[in-house]
Write a structure and sequence with these properties.
This protein has 9 helices and 22 strands. By secondary structure, the protein is an alpha/beta fold. It has 2 domains: 3-106 and 249-320, 3-Layer(bba) Sandwich (FAD/NAD(P)-binding domain); 109-247, FAD/NAD(P)-binding domain (3-Layer(bba) Sandwich), CATH 3.50.50. The strands form 7 sheets. Strands 5-2-1-9-19 form a 5-stranded parallel sheet, covered by helices on one side. Strands 13-12-11-17 form a 4-stranded parallel sheet. The chain has a 3-stranded antiparallel sheet with strand order 6-7-8. A hairpin with a 3-residue loop joins strand 7 and strand 8. It binds flavin-adenine dinucleotide (FAD). Flavin-adenine dinucleotide is lined by residues 9-14, 34-37, 43-44, 46, 77-78, 103-105, 123-124, 154-155, 158, 250, 252, 282-284, 291-294, 296, 326-327.
């Protein structure tokens, strides 16, 4: 009997899951993939918008181009989810699938840091990154502070990448001597699971004159005085504040009762939730891995393995492997690579490959390969 599988969210997790199901069991499933947007965009494309290297349409991979047997994409907004009945209401209709997968990612709470919405800018949303480009084009001199406002946040090295790319951007414009760049973090080192990667980043910061302020918690922004205030009463003056906003589950997930302690708890092996036939993958979960696309897709592969074995009534599904590579932009087209392993039940490891031009080509291939895997006919 054909299984109706409803996937909410067509990001890294939703796209990986739908393409795996299509590749393996297209004739035995009817997969409906829902997203409120018309196109997927890689998280790292936000830097292209921020630094004016590309437009919104340049970085968009349109869902209408998906050609995957057994998969139908629908552009709809999810309005409510009832995990006990698996009933989902969108702005277009109601669904009652056999299997429900929630892959709705993480949202931002701009108001939980007082003063941030008025006194800061951000590059963590696509609109924010685009708006920031205009602000940067007006910037002539002064102190730029990048502040991480909460944990967990997507792609732990991204704030460091922003600092190093900012250095490059200001240098190209001839105004680097007139500006300072600081990164304020709650962590002692930039990427705690990767001491090697952190050492390389801090070495590059020294080379580029970027200040790293460790173990510092920003609690609010004073837009009038242009000061970030810390939990210990410290004051960090800025001319331009770029904040990594506090993350949270989307409101529709919050209202569904699926989340506990902020995120959706899941079984480490197959990403099932406590509700029968309801799974969750990616940033929306509290799975033991960083919030990054590579882990969202690795979790989606584990769900696919379980569903494929269930549908075929055979096979031993491989559980969530917790492995993923993360490319880190060092500026000047140099890219480093963190080889992270968050295998459940073991201490995380994340050895680092030094930044090189060769890795820039590899990162390009990472995007091309996913575009092919997620969008084109088998
Ligand atoms: C600056 C920056 C750089 C990054 N660089 C990297 C990197 O180099 N490598 C990496 O692996 N990760 C990177 N990331 C992180 C990565 O983008 C995310 O972790 C990843 O997208 C998470 O995948 P996901 O499937 O869980 O959620 P998402 O990809 O966020 O997908 C969730 C989808 O749900 C949809 N949605 C949400 N609510 C609704 C609703 N109510 N109705 C319908 N649809 C809805 C959204 O439109 C979205 O398409 C970066 C992030 C940032 C901010």
């Amino acid at each position: 009997m054909t299984k109706n599988i409803l996937i909410l969210g067509a990001g890294f997790g939703g796209l990986e899951l739908s393409s795996r199901l299509s590749a393996e069991v297209a004739d035995e499933v009817r997969v409906t993939l829902i997203d409120k947007n018309e196109a997927f965009k890689f998280g790292f494309s936000k830097f292209d918008l921020m630094f004016g290297r590309a437009s919104m349409s340049d970085i968009s991979l349109y869902y209408r181009d998906i050609v995957k047997p057994g998969v139908e994409f629908r552009q709809e907004t999810v309005l409510s989810i009832d995990p006990s009945t698996k009933r989902v209401t969108t702005d277009a209709r109601t669904y009652e699938p056999d299997i429900l997968v929630v892959a709705l990612g993480a949202d931002y709470d701009f108001h939980s840091t007082p003063g941030f919405a008025d006194g800061g800018h951000e590059f963590y949303s696509f609109d924010g990154a685009l708006a920031l480009n205009e602000v940067l084009n007006e910037f002539k001199s002064g102190s730029i502070v990048i502040g991480i406002l909460g944990q967990p946040y997507k792609c732990p090295p991204a704030p460091c990448e922003a600092a190093m790319l900012l250095h490059e951007w200001l240098t190209e414009r001839g105004i680097r001597p007139d500006a300072s760049i600081s990164l304020v973090s709650q962590w002692a080192i930039p990427v705690p699971p990767s001491p090697d990667g952190s050492k390389a980043i801090l070495g590059r910061f020294d080379e580029l004159g970027i200040t790293y302020m460790p173990n510092t918690v920003i609690t609010s922004i004073d837009p009038e005085r242009k000061i970030a205030l810390t939990d210990e009463g410290g004051e960090i003056p800025f001319d331009l504040f770029l904040g990594i906003p506090v993350h949270r589950v989307p409101a529709v997930v919050e209202a569904s009762g699926l989340a506990e302690g902020g995120w959706i708890p899941v079984d480490d092996r197959n990403l099932s939730t406590r509700f029968p036939d309801v799974y969750a993958v990616g940033d929306v979960t509290s799975a033991p891995a960083p919030k990054a696309g590579v882990f969202a897709e690795s979790e989606a592969r584990a769900v696919a393995e379980y569903l494929i074995a269930e549908i075929r009534g055979a096979g031993s599904p491989i559980p969530f492997q917790g492995a993923g590579v993360c490319y880190v932009e060092f500026g000047d087209n140099l890219i480093g690579k963190v080889n992270a392993n968050f295998l459940p039940g073991q201490s995380p490891t994340a050895p680092f490959d030094d930044a090189s031009l060769e890795l820039a080509a590899e990162k390009g291939e990472f995007a091309t390969e996913r575009k092919r895997r997620w969008f084109t006919a088998p």
